[in-house]
């Protein structure tokens, strides 16, 4: 958390206003692939197997050096705390804040009884569910301060974050399955990272705050020929107020812990 505070210190001294703030954290604690489970899911439902995979193995109970759930801190609380610290800069810039969620943010992946996901084996997906709820619990208050906050998801695209568990054969097998899924009707298999970026770019540059619904999730989508478009999804907001209360309490605790951590050591040479 000291590094988050240090980022705040640097931003606060370098800028008088911030116009855009993107939260695109994707920390995971992966530990391999259940190849038997992967084969079964591919054989039973191709689209589902490469849209909502159930065969990625994730470690349970991993904590950060700050004694917080690692994925919880990296993907959600750390960014939220930084936003909290730079609110005056965001307000001065009438900023667009863009939280990048995921297709894999179903309510089943997160329990309000385990907000930091220390008992969960779906911490990545759970963190994205938290992103959804945190957005729903905060966007209206931010709007009063002149800040427009949006929730987006990039669909499915080629990323090297999981490639350590793939060889040449399985990598190209995955790529082929992505194309098959798109050809048979999935709108979410953008495959190309540039196409996946459409939703974040859209809400940041083209969205009209008077007509766009901030309760929706904006997704990057393509048709079977790869033509790009934006597709919206409704988000289940059950638990949003509880999550907001938890984050505000934790923020106050860390304000107290960090109040004496940063000093001005940047002496001009």
UniProtKB/TrEMBL annotation:
Keywords from the UniProt entry: Lipid biosynthesis, Lipid metabolism, Membrane, NADP, Oxidoreductase, Steroid biosynthesis, Transmembrane, Transmembrane helix
GO terms classed as biological process: ergosterol biosynthetic process
GO molecular function, one term: 3-beta-hydroxysteroid 3-dehydrogenase (NADP+) activity
Pathway: Steroid biosynthesis; zymosterol biosynthesis; zymosterol from lanosterol: step 5/6
Top-level EC class: oxidoreductase
Organism domain of life: Eukaryota
The keyword Ribosomal protein is assigned to this record: no
EC number per UniProt: 1.1.1.270
Keyword Oxidoreductase among UniProt keywords: yes
Similarity field: Belongs to the short-chain dehydrogenases/reductases (SDR) family. ERG27 subfamily.
Name this protein carries in UniProt: 3beta-hydroxysteroid 3-dehydrogenase
Annotated organism of origin: Torulaspora globosa
